[in-house]
Amino acid sequence: MTFMLAAFGVLGAFAMEKRIFTRETALGMYTTETFYFTKVLTELPHNTIFPIIQMCILYWIIGYQNKAENFLVFAFINVLSLNCGNSLGICIAACFSDLRVTLIAAPPLILPLMIFSGFFINTESIPVYLDWIKYLSPINYAFRAYMKTEFVDLVLECKDDELKANPSCPSNQPRCFCPVLEGEQVLKGFNLDDGITRSEAMACLAALYLFFTLIGYVLLSCVVRNKNKKRAKHV
């Protein structure tokens, strides 16, 4: 959800900033590089501190393992996820000059990344011709990293109402079988036992952040270049 909120949240704000930016770059006040990378760097503290604060609240409310290492990893994944959403939102906003068009185009571009991430639909159920989408989805890698942080080497126990019947159970206790005793069984149920490690998933998140950031810069540069050419023709 952090990714989605960041992606949709930045659309309107960047669209308004882009109007001012295109006007001021046309006057030669600064370059595209100056505006874009200054914006990215100045937003990093905000996009780092607030995901950590969010995780401080949610981690223990949800009831994850009481381990400092796991909490720090969760916080770092949350930071990466938010920054991926922010950079993707900037990419989309940079493509369109009209805010209404941006808001219409954004859901068809962002929602498939969520739907085919493996969180809502098991990756085994995704059609082959749509399977490639998950490799572009930051939610996919964030979900994998979260799950593997929580469930790898985790020993589980069943409550009395979670026990299942089994032929090996004694007659006076027909329900004695616990179907899930290890975290790896949970990962297998979500089809997350495919060999991608937590570190690799986090590295993919970081790579997608850099990719979306660079693509946003390229798109914004193209928009500015095209507008400058149009102005030059009218002069």
Structure description:
The protein has 235 residues and is an all-alpha fold. Helices cover 68% and strands 2% of the residues. It contains 7 helices and 2 strands; from the N terminus they run αααααββαα. The chain has helices at residues 2-26, 32-62, 68-95, 99-115, 138-151, 183-189, 198-234, and strands at residues 164-165, 175-177. The chain has a two-stranded antiparallel sheet with strand order 1-2. α5 (138-151) runs antiparallel to α6 and α5 (138-151) packs antiparallel against α7. The model has no long low-confidence stretch (mean pLDDT 85).
Main features:
235 residues, mainly alpha, 68% helix, 7 helices
- Radius of gyration, CA atoms, in whole angstroms: 23 Å
Structural class: mainly alpha
Shape: elongated
What level of helicity do the residues show?
Answer: 55-70%
User: What are the segments in which pLDDT stays under 50 over at least 5 consecutive residues?
Assistant: none
- Assembly level: single chain
Strand order of the largest sheet: 1-2
Largest sheet: 2 strands, antiparallel
Mean pLDDT: 85
The ordered H/E elements are HHHHHEEHH
Distance between the termini: 47 Å
Strand content: under 5%
Number of strands: 2
Number of helices: 7
Chain-wise SSE layout:
Layout: H1 2-26, H2 32-62, H3 68-95, H4 99-115, H5 138-151, E1 164-165, E2 175-177, H6 183-189, H7 198-234
Helix pairs in contact: 1-3, 1-4, 2-3, 2-7, 3-4, 3-5, 3-7, 5-6, 5-7
